[in-house]
What does this fold into?
Amino acid sequence: MKNIQQHIEALIFVSDEGINTSDIHQVISQLFPDNEIQKTEIEQYIKAIKEKYLSDNYILELKHIADRYHFLTKSKYYTSVQKLLAHKEKRKLSQAALETLSIIAYRQPITKLEVEQIRGVNCDYTIQRLLDKNLITILGKAESVGRPLLYGTSDEFLSHFGINHFNELPQLKEIVEETNVIGKNNEIEK
It folds into this structure.
């Protein structure tokens, strides 16, 4: 009988959106066709699983939310999980953010208008997100008309990309090899 309990536990564990008693019953009935398991027995197994996870030996707990069973991290581990998720969120950058960040890194100090002229699109949102992630910082104001803000990369930028100094950024020549060739290579050889 413990084997059935472990199967139920596995079903709950792998269910991204949770699983209800009817779905558990349907799967268990297919796995153990000779046992004719009732829904009330499924509920007893679920109760035993819930009691098992009340122990301090486990970081998870079984919750019943919106008629579905879920394994969730216990609330006392909230701070640890929150820090990990915040750390992961800081690491994720969209293609637009990477493009904008690389322009700022190679051309700093640079104004938002100059970044937009290079990218060819409005960068308000992207620059704000990079500021929120502390990857760029405001260095001051330009001496040009309107005194626009100047942006540059921050220490967090160095940490994010695992470099110690801006000199460690790859040179543009290393990234893109320039060629002044007109036409296809096979046309030149003829």
